[in-house]
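Chain A, query sequence.
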Amino acid sequence: MDFLRRRPPADALRWAERALGGDARVVGWRRMTGGIMSAVHRLTVMGGGHRHLMVLRQYEDGAARSAGLVWREADTLGQVHACGLAAPRLVAYSPDGANAGGHPSLLMTRLRGRVYLTPEDSRAWLGQIAAMAASIHGAPVAAQPLESRAYAVCAAVPESSARPRLWQAVIDVLRQNGGSPRPCFIHGDFQYFNFLWARGRLTGVVDWTMAAAGPSDLDVGHCRLNLAVLLGAGWAERFRLAYEAETGRRVDPWWDLYSIACYSDAWRRFIPIQVAGRAPVDVRGMTARVEDLLEMTLRRL
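Chain A, predicted structure.
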């Protein structure tokens, strides 16, 4: 966690200036809210007589898979931006962190907007998220296949659960049956912390680190889990219906269960860190809200 709180290394700022070229000069920086895997900073850059905002993402030196994550996101950003999806434009990347303070790094443009967790019009908010998911899943992006080990059933009964039999029923279903993969391009971490909004409009999606070719319903289920965690199972159900209306197909309840059942008690610790005071967080009721959603999803089998 100390790494996430540090200021960007001076070498990394000089690397960013060289990547931007010309007379670019970093004149300010601010750590951005919510990162738990990487340090993300907004850079204020002066160059050509104009002020620009950039985003610098860095992984801790020696962190497992860091170089691979940088390679993957760099490749993905190039493709999704070319497809016209609302994603940052890649400026530069350094998988080994050479000349960037020793940390595997990406430099990208900053998208307009902010994370918006308390919508006044839930129908419009969820509808735009569903439309964005459909656009991503239909994008002609040649992504790496989702790692086979990602399909291992990760469900376990949380210590905070008041309904262990429900969890066991979910685990039994996941072990006995398998959903059809039907791979397409997926974001891999499709949830509200990665959506940016301005004046009620969804302006962009960030954090493409986990993008891959996999089942679209993994994205849907992951988004539904996050909605249940913070807002309740009803929000998650309305999102599913909005996505089904947008795509004209039914969300596979097996993949839905698979994604939702990845919840654990760790979520009760890191969700408040990511929310960072931007919305109320009922930690005590979190597991019960997820269990409500699991129960609803089991009924769809």
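The mean pLDDT is 92. The chain has ten helices and nine strands.
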